[in-house]
Amino acid sequence: MADIANLRTSAETGLSTLFETARKGFGSETAISREEAFRFFEAAGLPSRRVEAFKYTDLRAAMQEAAPPAETPALDLATSAVAAATAFSAVKAVRLTFVNGHLIRELSDLDRVPAGVSVSPLNEALSRGDARLKNLAPVAQARENPIYQLNTAFLADGALISVEAGAKFETPLHLRFVGAGAEGFSTATRVLVEVADGAEFTLLETHEGPNGLTYQPNDALDVHVGKHAAFRHARINREGDKAIALSTISVRLDDESRLETVNLVTGAVLSRHQIYMHVAGENVNAVVNGAAMLGDGQLADSTLLADHAAVGGVGREMFKTVIDGDATGVFQGKIIVRQIAQKTDGKMKSDCLLLSDEGQMMNKPELEIFADDVACGHGATCGAPDQDLLFYLMARGLPKPIAESLLVQAFVGEAVESVTHEGARAALIGEIEAWLASRG
Questions:
Q1: In degrees rounded to 5, what are phi and psi of residue 172?
Q2: Contact 259, 285 (CB under 8 A)
Q3: In sequence order, which residues have a C-beta less than 8 Å from that of residue 276 and are 6 or more positions away?
Q4: pLDDT at site 31
Q5: Is the separation of the CB atoms in 295 and 302 below 8 Å?
Q6: Quick one: average pLDDT of 315-332?
Q7: Buried-state track 226-264, b at ≥16 Cβ within 10 A, e below 16
Q8: How far apart are the first and last CA of the chain?
Q9: pTM for the whole structure
Q10: Are 404 and 385 in contact (CB under 8 A)?
């Protein structure tokens, strides 16, 4: 029987051409294995619905053309774009600004980084072969993902962030990613955060871009949280209405560490946010939340893998999706409990609120348990706003749009209540209110 080979799409052919051109300007292959990463991607191709993990998010069909990697923008263009980027702008923070995937020193606070934290631009680290680069990709399952490997292949800039043992900071670090320009482009950024034993660190992350412009950001955040350390993370996706936005977080957690992460999506025509969590140490406590508020034509995919490989881990995952118009929400979550991971306590839930009859929600929660002494569960719900609650509010004089907005805000608000940083939590609530106000 003859072998059957899939025909390559225009986007896949374009990516191969772009890689062959871009590799001439890459630094030493000893720092990161770009060639190996791209050959992995090339063999797999853009994921389609034939791939189970991408059953509901067909990137092969959605990505018609491969956009070229963005060049470093002129300072005046970068300054103008950043002035319009307001997500988390009211929160006091040390900011690292990336425009079109490149760190802009003039718009960053590199001179304000507090003692106890080390920040190195990634392109400089690649040039000198920084030893910390070996700690990229701390979760094995992420390295089996073609989108993550595509990020590695085209990696242009980002940051290496190291937090000293025992250090604790009230002021968070804000990674501000902004897109700008008149022509389509792609970006590939990577940030590595290493939180040493006993340290506590808060990271804010925002992604914003212009409407009407087709561009393709692909960003990744790698995190290693040491023993008795805490990492807190809040992320906003406010990309432009034509963007295809791909993002990955991979986190390794050591003994007695704590994780808090939340991702709020209101932007991009198509977005996929991948979370790979590896519980490597005992008695870890992790809270992984997400919220998506979607309108006509949007698709937002949240995909989670929580791998418990040590005793006594506690995991709480909550995802909220609001669907308006003909939008599509996707949640895929899997909790794996290894045989060694006795006394694991894992709970995962996805809830969807449908504000129209045209929208749809795809839920696929899974458990894969090999231990005996565990307490794990998952659930998924989907439905319209509670008519009794709506009537209750309207009976007290509230117009129907305001009453419905209050119910939606309360529904989504559950996902951001866990955010410890008050300023970040208030900003996330503000994003929810702004989306509701835009509905009219």
A1: -80, 165
A2: yes
A3: 139, 141, 142, 145, 248, 249, 250, 251, 305, 307
A4: 66
A5: no
A6: 98
A7: bebbbbbbbbbbbbbbbbbbbbbbbbbbbbbbbbbbbbb
A8: 60
A9: 0.96
A10: yes
